[in-house]
Amino acid sequence: xxxxxxxxxxxxxxxxxxxxxxxxxxxxxxxxxxxxxxxxxxxxxxxxxxxxxxxxxxxxxxxxxxxxxxxxxxxxxxxxxxxxxxxxxxxxxxxxxxxxxxxxxxxxxxxxxxxxxxxxxxxxxxxxxxxxxxxxxxxxxxxxxxxxxxxxxxxxxxxxxxxxxxxxxxxxxxxxxxxxxxxxxxxxxxxxxxxxxxxxxxxxxxxxxxxxxxxxxxxxxxxxxxxxxxxxxxxxxxxxxxxxxxxxxxxxxxxxxxxxxxxxxxxxxxxxxxxxxxxxxxxxxxxxxxxxxxxxxxxxxxxxxxxxxxxxxxxxxxxxxxxxxxxxxxxxxxxxxxxxxxxxxxxxxxxxxxxxxxxxxxxxxxxxxxxxxxxxxxxxxxxxxxxxxxxxx
Length: 393
Description:
This protein is of the alpha+beta class and 393 residues long. It has helices at 21-49, 97-101, 183-191, 211-215, 219-224, 231-234, 246-259, 277-299, and strands at 198-199, 204-205, 227-230, 264-270, 306-312, 331-337. The chain has eight helices and six strands; from the N terminus they run αααββααβααβαββ. A four-stranded mixed beta sheet has the order 3-6-4-5. The longest helix is centred in the first third of the chain and has 29 residues, at 21-49. The chain is flat and about 195 Å long.
């Protein structure tokens, strides 16, 4: 029977050892140190044994310059001033030059006016043009710029106004021009005509106000007054086309409408008493529509606040006379009102109320001549009537 375990006899591994290498390394290091020390010592001896040269000054080489030969500029000598010869005696000088004019010698100048022929120096062409050469440019006449010296308003500056925005109304009354008719002056002239139903001294048609004065009234005053524009100022005779000068007058009407928003502008057309009813009615209607059309299309005013009424010859201000005397009848009335006219207003149904009760009145009674008038009869007091008896407290 074995008394030992199997693991006790197991072999153990040990790595191989390198013996003797450490000495070789040590010797190599020592030799390297010795060699380096020896090299340093030798190099130091060589540095100290080398010669050091002394510092010397640097000397440059001489520079040779060659002189250029140039000629000197000759300076002109100023000539000496000539000596003035003064008179020996100063008393010969004259203080006043004008006094010496009389002592000057007169020189005769012979001017011959009898000349038969005037002679000029001869002119020759040194370089004539070749035959057949184009000389068209030389024959063109020279025309100067034509300037108009007739200036109507000298010194007047032209002013370019800024364009208005879309939908904007700008009306400037400005100043009256000499060649443009004033509507207020036309109304005054019509009022001065015989039979014009107006005040001859003031020259105003009765019941009308000047257009410019009407445009500056308050809304309350506008409803109580009216303005008129002569049709002869706006249209030609029996024409419905506006004149060029009429647009200046209509700008005042546009200003009147723009200053009073919400009010209705009544444009009433009138004619004279000549012609038929239908013709005058259509003429006044078309003229009123022409005025409204220009205000709406040109100035973009609201058409619902401009109402046209055609009255024809139904409301003349002059009932007699010829066409010149009845010029006041041919007119366009302008009225500013808060409501439209009756013929264009909306009709409202109104329920009829109860008729008012009649107040009874006294009826006189005729006297009866045949019978006697009844008189009052006295009735005696009844003694049996009980009387009030006071009761004590």
